[in-house]
Design brief:
The structure holds three protein chains of three kinds. By secondary structure, chain A is an alpha+beta fold. Chain A is built from three helices and five strands; from the N terminus they run αββαβαββ. Chain A has one domain: SH3 type barrels. By secondary structure, chain B is mainly alpha-helical. Chain B has one domain. Helices cover about 65% and strands about 0% of the residues of chain B. By secondary structure, chain C is α/β, with parallel strands linked by helices. Chain C has eleven helices and four strands. In chain C, helix 3 crosses helix 4 and helix 8 packs across helix 9. The longest helix of chain C is centred in the N-terminal third of the chain and has 15 residues. Chain C starts with 17 loop residues before the first helix and ends in a 28-residue tail after the last helix. The chains are: A alpha+beta, B mainly alpha, C alpha/beta. At the A-C interface, helix 1, strand 2, strand 3 and strand 4 of A face strand 3 of C. Strand 4 of chain A pairs parallel with strand 3 of chain C, so a sheet runs across the interface.
Amino acid sequence: MSKIEHDRTHHAAKATGIGDPQCFHGEAGPAKFKVGDEVRVRNLPDLFYTRCQVYTRGAVGRVTEVVYESPAAEDESWDNTDQPEWFYSVVFRQKELWPDYPDLYENDTLETEFSERWLEAP
Amino acid sequence: MSDMQMSNVIDGQAAARLDTAPISLLEKVRSEGRVWTDLAEEYGVTNPDPPWKITLEATCDLLAEAECALPALERRWEEDELSEERYAGVPFPERQLLALAHSMIRRGLVNEGELAKRMQQVHERLTQV
Amino acid sequence: MAEGHTHPAAPMVDEVSDFEVLEMAVRELAIEKGLFSADDHRRWTEYVHTLGPLPAARLVAKAWLDAEFKKLAVRDGVKASLEVGVDWINGPPTGFGTPSDYCNLRVLEDTPTVKHVVVCTLCSCYPRPILGQSPEWYRTPNYRRRLVRWPRQVLAEFGLQLDPGVEIRVADSNQKTRYIVLPVRPDGTEGWSEDQLAEIVTRDCLIGVAVPKPGITANATRPVHPAVHPVHHEH
């Protein structure tokens, strides 16, 4: 790859042949939540850049997978990769996300991922 | 949350920083350039995409990767904003290309003058007999 | 047309468009300014050229034929991808995945009571290494905003209507995971080979906006209308 001053060389050295997010395996410490846990999405202030969709804020869902360790997107965009977190796949009932979602489709759900900082016990 | 609120929040972050005012060089390309769907029809070519679509994708990937000059998420937010406000009605991928050039000019990665000059040189190179 | 040829030359666009010129000019300036190298660009272009939906279709066909492979696909999408020739980690020129695709494929298994459909509301992320380039409609704010909110309506527009009791699960790939859908194997495919099965698993089936059907081997063509008004209808 080309010469860089952004820290992509460091990332390349760490991740080549291993993959991203695989290269952060083992760095996050114990996972706070496990599969089956109910979690609420926190409404943290967005500084500038977030991958936590506004439509999920405040909603309660259930952890369906503990997926990988990685720096949170909010840190990674500033090249702050020192403290990876656990990421979780969370399933929500659509009715929970959109109060006027039709009752006829009460089984419909939505699944999306969050880094640990965005979740709390309900 | 209403759809309007949702779209404002998704787009608002990049839109706050992006100047969508027209850039005359790109407006010229937009009005005078021939889009692939027209060219393909005229020449009877069945490929749905222009040959430069893939090189454009590679450029977008590398801008996000090599120097992180234009991270993917921001480029896409700006592309959404520009697609709605400035380049609505332009077919994809011409729209993606115009949005990329617009983002790059506004970020100072290239300037309009040098881009115009380079376009002239490229055009001469490609059309010389 | 040259004499002696029995077949006419393939038609070519014999004209230089300003868009073609703009793309090249942008790329050349970017290289001169050191934003990336010409070598990197050539390698990336070669890589992107290799990408298409066939490996994902074969992954589904294999999973339909082999229960153990299906379990692997659901448990470890990256490992299962290797068996259809896709290496999420070493395939891209970086050696650690691409900056927008990463290396965490999850295969979402449909059942008779759960139907998955994939979107990326934030930026239209897509599992390119196994599925190729995303279609234009997938990238539009129209699809991205509406699918999470009105999935039934959007799917109906794609010609897919499901029983109200079925759980439609929208997967929003907002972080590093990329998804493909493993649809339910349709009736009428008993005794089919892997090739025959792969042929009916179209890109749209793998995104989740269509279901595989014997005899249907192409994505439905969709006219794309630029959104004149932003979407906020009420139902």
